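Quick log. Single chain, no ligands specified.
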Amino acid sequence: MAAPLSRRKLLAASSGLAASGLLLAQAGPAMAAWLTPTPAQPAGPFYHPFEPLSVDNDLLLRKDGAARADGEIIYVKGRVRDQSGKPIKGARVEIWQANAYGRYNHPRHANSNLPLDPNFHGFGHSLTDQGGNYRFRSIKPAPYPDNADWLRPPHIHFAVFPPGGPAWTTQMYFAGESLNQSDFLLRSLKDDTARRRLITRFRSYPDAPDTGASLGQFDIVLGMPGVVQDKA
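-> predicted structure:
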């Protein structure tokens, strides 16, 4: 697991990967067959500061399992690959998000007048398997006011720590949200195709053990220099 100090450099890491993705896009026809990297986005101010950082990949229940978090149950799954299409195994995938009322479980959000759900930790992690797959159970986050003038749309923050590679961050958005159209971070991606790569459509998940749950697929392609080659 990455050292705490390196986690504080998430913003710098994601900025570097975004710049590398731009250079790759200009590299010419020889790279055209490679997968396009998922756009990087900043970690934001609410990255989880506590130890232990997470118990597991289930954000719905806290460690004691006595009560579940409020809100609409969602499952998020996906696959982490490099630009050659090769799965990246053993990558630590972290997510953090607001609760069903738009509140982060974070000291910097302590002055919010939004409710704090005592049963929602707001942070989870998973390790990718041999196929690069990860999976989370959580709740759909609510919008929250970033300042007095506008709301941020529902979104989930992602950080990926590939073995031997730098940290990389982005944000996943929910399809059909009107606030997506005005969000400054999503709109900072000038390419419609790039924006669509960060927007996930959730569908009914009748096979889930939770009644009324929905499932979204968010695949991640790490760009240079985040390409991890398995030499085994």
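The chain has one domain: 4-221.
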